[in-house]
C-alpha cells in the first residue's frame, strides 16, 4: 500500500467524536485530548436558554460562551457548530423545575439537564453530524464489564475527589452511556488548567460556571416568579426541645423516612417571607430574621398554608433524619443487573447532594419502593432531590427522594 493510500485509509477509519463545547476549560481540554488520541473531533455548542430574568449581574450570557467555544475550536482546528435546544430545555427541565417548586419540593435541574438534554436531545443532534461517540468535560469515568454474556457500561467517579461529577449523571441509562467518552475523568482539575494554558486555549483562566445548568447563577425567588407568585407568609420558629421530636425504632421504615410536620401552634412567629415555595430544607440565607443566638435554618415548608418553619443552629434536631423513601417508579438502576428485588437489601455508599461525602447505609426494597436507611442521621434530606448509591467507585443507581 502506498503512503498516500495508507493515509486515506487511516482517516476513513477514524471515529468521529462530537464534543459538547460549552466555552469552559473542561470541555475545551476534553476536545484537545481526543484530537491528540486521533479522533475526528467536532465541537457542538448548545443554546439552551435565552431569558435573563433573575440572572445575577456579572454572569456571562450564552453569546459570550459560544464565542469562546468557537475560538477554542479554531485553535484546535476542528469543525464547530451551534444548535438551539432552548425549546426542549424549557419543556423538559425548566417547566419541571417550576412545577416541583410549586409543590414545595426542590428539584435538581443539573441532573435533569444531563438526562434530558446533554445525553438525549444533544445525542440526537450529534448523530446528525455522523458522530460515533459524544464526549463531555465531566469529571467521571466510564468502562465496560461483561456479565453472563452481556456487556454493561459502568459509570465511575472521577479521579479528582474534589471535582467528581458522577452524581450529576446518576439518571443516565445503559443506552445513553454506551457511546459516551469522558476524556478528563482520569485527571486532576489542576492538570486540566495546565493543559489549557500550555495549548494557549482561550478558556485556560475562565472561571467555572455556577448556578443552574445553562441558565447560570440566579436570584432564585426572582427567577421562579416568572411562574410562581410571591405571597406574604409567616416564619415560625421551632425550639430545639419541642416535644414532637421522638426516637423512632429502626424497624419502622415508613416512620423513619417520614419528615416531621409542624403547625403554627408548635412554635412562635419570628418574621415574614414572600412565598414558602421559594425556600428549601436546610436553607440559611434569605430569611432576614435577626436577633437570634444562633443562625436560623429552614426545617420545613408548608406551601398550602404558606408557612416556613425554622430552627436555630446546625445541630437542630429538625434538620436530621435517619432514612428516606423513593417511590417504585422513581427507582433507577444504571446497572440493571444489580437491581434489587422486593424483599432484598444491600449496603451501599450514598449521597443526597453534590459534593456530599459518601455516607454508609442500606437500601431496602419493598412493595412501596426503596428505603435508604443511613448509618448516621442525615442533614437536610429534601423531597425532589436525587439520592445516589455507589458500590465502591461505581455509581449503581439513583432515585428521586419522595420524602
Categorize the overall geometry.
globular
Given helix and strand content, the structural type is alpha/beta
Remind me, CATH topology of the domain at 3-137 and 183-223? Rossmann fold
What is the class of the domain at 3-137 and 183-223 in the CATH system? Answer: Alpha Beta
Describe the structure.
- With 403 residues, the protein is α/β, with parallel strands linked by helices.
- Among the domains are: 3-137 and 183-223, Rossmann fold (3-Layer(aba) Sandwich); 229-315, Adenine nucleotide alpha hydrolases-like domains (SH3 type barrels, Roll).
- Helices cover 24% and strands 28% of the residues.
- It contains 9 helices and 18 strands.
- The strands form 3 sheets. Strands 5, 6, 12, 13, 14, 15, 16, 17 and 18 form a 9-stranded antiparallel sheet that branches. A 5-stranded parallel sheet has the order 3-2-1-4-7, with helices on both faces. A 4-stranded mixed sheet has the order 9-8-11-10, with no helix packed on it.
- Strand 2, helix 3 (62-76) and strand 3 form a beta-alpha-beta unit.
- Helix 2 (25-36) packs across helix 7 and helix 4 runs antiparallel to helix 5 (109-128).
- The longest helix has 20 residues, at 109-128.
- The radius of gyration is 23 Å and the shape is globular.
- The model is unreliable at 1-12 (pLDDT under 50).
Amino acid at each position: 500500500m502506498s503512503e498516500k493510500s495508507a493515509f486515506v485509509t487511516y482517516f476513513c477509519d477514524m471515529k468521529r467524536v462530537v464534543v459538547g463545547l460549552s466555552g469552559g476549560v473542561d470541555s475545551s481540554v476534553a476536545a484537545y485530548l481526543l484530537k491528540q488520541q486521533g479522533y475526528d473531533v467536532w465541537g457542538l455548542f448548545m443554546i439552551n436558554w435565552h431569558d435573563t430574568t433573575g440572572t445575577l449581574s456579572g454572569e456571562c450570557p450564552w453569546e459570550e460562551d459560544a464565542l469562546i467555544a468557537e475560538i477554542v475550536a479554531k485553535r484546535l482546528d476542528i469543525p464547530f457548530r451551534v444548535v438551539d435546544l432552548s425549546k426542549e430545555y424549557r419543556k423538559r427541565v425548566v417547566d419541571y423545575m417550576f412545577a416541583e417548586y410549586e409543590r414545595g419540593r426542590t428539584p435538581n435541574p443539573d441532573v435533569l439537564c444531563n438526562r434530558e438534554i446533554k445525553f438525549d436531545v444533544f445525542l440526537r443532534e450529534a448523530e446528525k453530524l455522523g458522530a460515533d461517540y459524544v464526549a463531555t468535560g465531566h469529571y467521571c469515568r466510564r468502562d465496560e464489564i461483561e456479565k453472563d454474556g452481556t456487556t454493561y457500561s459502568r459509570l465511575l467517579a472521577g479521579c479528582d475527589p474534589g471535582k467528581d461529577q458522577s452524581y450529576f449523571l446518576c439518571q443516565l441509562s445503559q443506552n445513553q452511556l454506551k457511546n459516551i467518552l469522558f476524556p478528563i475523568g482520569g485527571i486532576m482539575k489542576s492538570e486540566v488548567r495546565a493543559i489549557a494554558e500550555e495549548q494557549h486555549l482561550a478558556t485556560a483562566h475562565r472561571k467555572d460556571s455556577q448556578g443552574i445548568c445553562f441558565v447560570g447563577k440566579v436570584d432564585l425567588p426572582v427567577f421562579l416568579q416568572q411562574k410562581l407568585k410571591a405571597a406574604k407568609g409567616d416564619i415560625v420558629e421551632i425550639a430545639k426541645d419541642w416535644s414532637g421530636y421522638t426516637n423512632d425504632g429502626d424497624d419502622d421504615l415508613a416512620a423513619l423516612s417520614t419528615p416531621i410536620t409542624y403547625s403554627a401552634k408548635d412554635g412562635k412567629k419570628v418574621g415574614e417571607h414572600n412565598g414558602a415555595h421559594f425556600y428549601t430544607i436546610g436553607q440559611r440565607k434569605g430569611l432576614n430574621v435577626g436577633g437570634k443566638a444562633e443562625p436560623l435554618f429552614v426545617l420545613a415548608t408548608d406551601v398550602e398554608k404558606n408557612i416556613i418553619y425554622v430552627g436555630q443552629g446546625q445541630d437542630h434536631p429538625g434538620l436530621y433524619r435517619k432514612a428516606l423513601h423513593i417511590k417504585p417508579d422513581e427507582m433507577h438502576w444504571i446497572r440493571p443487573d444489580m437491581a434489587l428485588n422486593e424483599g432484598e437489601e444491600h449496603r451501599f455508599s450514598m449521597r443526597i447532594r453534590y459534593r456530599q461525602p459518601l455516607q454508609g447505609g442500606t437500601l431496602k426494597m419493598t412493595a412501596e419502593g426503596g428505603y435508604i436507611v443511613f448509618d448516621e442521621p442525615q442533614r437536610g434530606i429534601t423531597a425532589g432531590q436525587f439520592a445516589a448509591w455507589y458500590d465502591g467507585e461505581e455509581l449503581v443507581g439513583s432515585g428521586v427522594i419522595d420524602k
